[in-house]
Design a protein that fits this description.
heterodimer, A: mainly alpha, B: alpha/beta, 11-stranded mixed beta sheet, 15 helices, 11 strands, 38% helix, globular
Chain lengths: 58, 465
């Protein structure tokens, strides 16, 4: 979400970290953003996720 | 003080009426009293309960009505396992006074097997983060050197087993929390196949990544403990409805012809390990070859891919568990857990879905890679235990976790000690098998342990008693 400031992203979560923890949290979030970018790779639109909807056998 | 016994050894002696469960329990309690003020493995010692359990086991032993190889064996539970009437805290201020009304399924099963319940063990807060120094109880320390980290989150179990305070214990593993402390404390610990052991009555962290499993001094003991732990439980939506094999039947069978793949890039380039760890793995491969196994290298996706998928899923699911408390009591959590869990609030729903799509691909990749293999070998930790004051607060993409790939895929994986490094602390390897092929995993690990002498060494503080 590059279009939002970090402070706005924190506010959107509803969490209330201490002001002095914000730089550390921002660094951790940037690392998580990189992880998220890595899982977005190209794949067929029809590729189902692992947890495909399955009903239990009656 | 009595010799250190494995569960297998103690079980045989109890059955032969050559060892009293009460005396064994008292020995373990004495070790707790002597070492735990330094090691901090226990959050709660249930001495009266332990002695009562032991007396009942002794009556069965004398009457020839033992329930099996775990009857009269002192164990303890990680403090995220619910124990009826006994405080269960997750090592957190949030649950400081929580007393469950019912046992978790695994706790009930071990109780039914006749185990002696010694108490509740330290964990990282809610099984994530750590070591933390801002919680109501101090973190567990490594009995090989208390200035060092025992890893986590099943830190108390690793420390208590290595020092002989208990003969076995429960752990849980969402990203490596059984295999990490097993590795750094020099014991054996298995994260079974996803769905093999119930998680009902165990405080959740990540619904699709959480596993319960046993930790003990030897691979054989892990097999004995898993036997009493595994099985379908309708109370756990992830539980697999399938028969439980006999985990010890083929334990001593030759591994001649076993097909072993080495995921060398995981520990040589993706997350390089210490020379002692690499040397331990190389030597283990030589041992396996000597015992008749066939060995070849295998290549998977970079470990960073597995780590990224695991991080997004784990953090999202953990956030879903904790969101209400996070909003109301954010600063009641310890700093490490709070920092890590808060990330879940920043992950977009589309990224979670992409992660579980990628997860499916990685599972298929591992299935294909193991089509003509029985076992994979990799590292479990990068080296010996670091100083407890010098543990990085956060694993990141640049240092991906060696254990996470098998939480992402759900494959069974086990830490096995491969010796001791330059600092005198344990080093280890990780063995992985196909889903529900735990017997093969135990067979390989047991063959290695029998070929080596590592199980004869214990922490000096325990030997000094």
């Amino acid at each position: 979400m590059p279009d939002m400031t970090f402070a706005a992203r924190v506010a959107a979560t509803g969490l209330s970290p201490k002001p002095e923890d914000m730089p550390k949290l921002q660094a951790l979030v940037e690392d998580m953003d990189r992880a998220a970018a890595l899982v977005r790779g190209p794949r067929s639109y029809a590729e189902e996720p692992l947890s495909a909807f399955r009903l239990p056998t009656p | 003080m009595a010799d250190f016994l494995t569960i297998a050894e103690a079980g045989k002696l109890i059955a032969a009426r050559k060892l009293s469960p009460v005396e064994l329990t008292k020995t373990c309690l004495d070790r707790v009293k002597a070492m735990d003020p330094v090691v901090n493995a226990f959050l709660l010692v249930t001495e009266e309960r332990a002695l009562a359990d032991a007396k009942v086991a002794e009556t069965r032993a004398m009457g020839g009505t033992l329930k099996g190889p775990l009857d009269g064996i002192p164990i303890a539970h990680k403090d995220i396992y619910n124990t009826a009437g006994i405080r269960t805290t997750a090592h957190s201020k949030l649950l400081e006074t929580n007393v469950p009304t019912a046992d978790g399924t695994v706790v009930s099963k071990w109780d039914a097997a006749g185990t002696v319940m010694m108490g509740k063990l330290a964990t990282h807060e809610f099984a994530m983060g750590g070591p933390s120094f801002d919680l109501p109880w101090p973190p567990a320390r490594n009995p090989w050197n208390p200035a060092h980290f025992p890893a986590g989150s099943s830190s108390g179990t690793g420390a208590a087993v290595a020092s002989g305070m208990i003969l076995g214990g429960t752990g849980s593993d969402t990203g490596g929390s059984i295999r990490g402390p097993s590795a750094l404390c020099g014991i054996a610990g298995i994260k079974p196949t996803y769905g093999l052991c119930s998680r009902s009555g165990v405080l959740p962290l990540s619904f699709t990544m959480d596993h319960t499993g046993p930790m003990a001094w030897t691979v054989e003991d892990c097999a004995l403990l898993l036997q009493a732990m595994a099985g379908y439980d309708p109370g756990d939506p992830g539980s697999a409805d399938r028969p439980v094999p006999d985990f010890t039947a083929d334990l001593s069978k030759s591994i001649k012809g076993l097909r072993i793949g080495v995921v060398r890039h995981f520990y040589e380039t993706d997350s390089p390990v210490s020379p002692a760890t690499k040397q331990g793995i190389d030597h283990a491969l030589t041992v396996f070859e000597h015992l008749g196994a066939e060995i070849r290298d295998v290549t998977l996706s970079p470990m960073m891919d597995y780590h990224a998928v695991g991080s997004v899923i784990l953090t999202s699911e953990a956030y879903a568990v904790h969101e209400p408390w996070l909003k109301e009591r954010f600063n009641d959590y310890g700093e490490l857990f709070r920092d890590r869990i808060a990330l879940g609030g920043f992950i977009r729903s589309v990224d979670y879905v992409q992660a579980i799509r990628r997860r499916r691909m990685l599972i298929q990749e591992l299935k294909d890679a193991m089509a003509d293999l029985d076992i994979l070998v990799s590292a479990s930790q990068v080296g010996e235990a670091p100083l407890i004051t010098e543990v990085p607060k956060w694993t990141n993409l640049e240092k991906p976790s060696l254990t996470m790939p098998f939480n992402v895929t759900g494959y069974p994986a086990m830490s096995v000690c491969t010796g001791y490094g330059v600092g005198g602390l344990p080093v280890c390897m990780q063995l992985i098998a196909k889903p529900f092929a735990e017997p093969t995993l135990f067979q390989a690990g047991h063959a290695y342990e029998r070929a080596m002498d590592w199980r004869s060494k214990r922490p000096e503080m325990a030997l000094a008693l």
